[in-house]
Amino acid sequence: MGVTTEVRAMDAAKWRTGVTVVRAEAQRAAKQGTGGTGRTTVVDYAGTGGERTWIGTVTLPPGTRTGTHHHGRHEVTIFIVKGRLEIRWGERLEYVADLEPGDFAYFAPFVPHQEFNTHTVDTVDLIAIRSDNERIAISLADNPVDRPEAVY
User: Fold this and answer.
1) Residue 81: alpha-carbon gap to chain centroid
2) Least packed by Cβ within 10 Å: which of 71, 103, 133, 143?
3) Spatial contact of 107 and 95, defined as CB atoms under 8 Å apart
4) Average pLDDT per run of 10 along the chain, which is 152 residues long?
5) Where are the beta strands (DSSP E) in 35-112?
6) Distance between CA 111 and CA 10 in Å, rounded?
7) What CATH superfamily is the domain 23-150?
8) CB neighbours of 136 closer than 8 A, spacing ≥ 6?
């Protein structure tokens, strides 16, 4: 019985750090504090035994449009928490979709895209998940078509 008790104590110590809780207030403070960029890392996985995933939050102020970019070899998924977001993608941003709370969008590697908060008052809050924890964001020239094709 003594060995079993020791093993359970070792397992308990190991599992104690197996879950990371990130509080909403810490995210708000990081995004809005001095030097806040509207983006925060929720879980980076570096040093935790994981290596290939990044999860973060993004807030786009009213009227904010990102430049055209892609994330290299990374796969990216976003989940809309609050607000409405227009995304455009393609070599000349020739495709467009409007996202609302509860919607997900997946971006395959190397796909040029842009996010746009078209609202004049409300922010857009989203969760972003990347297939790697490198911060690859490659800016591209903006040369969008006048009338993108809506994808539903």
Assistant:
1) 11
2) 143
3) no
4) 59 62 67 62 58 84 93 90 94 92 90 94 93 85 89 83
5) 39-43, 54-60, 69-70, 76-82, 85-89, 95-99, 104-107
6) 46
7) Jelly Rolls (2.60.120.10)
8) 71, 72, 73, 74
